[in-house]
Amino acid sequence: MNNFRIAGLIILLCGISLLVNPAAATNKVIDHGTVYSSSDLTNHFKFEWKTYEYKNGAIKVLAKVYIEKKGKWAFLGNESISLQKISKTKIKLSIINLSGFKGSPEYIKTTHSLKNYYWHNFRPDRLLKGHYMPVG
Question: How far apart are the first and last CA of the chain?
Answer without folding.
Answer: 58
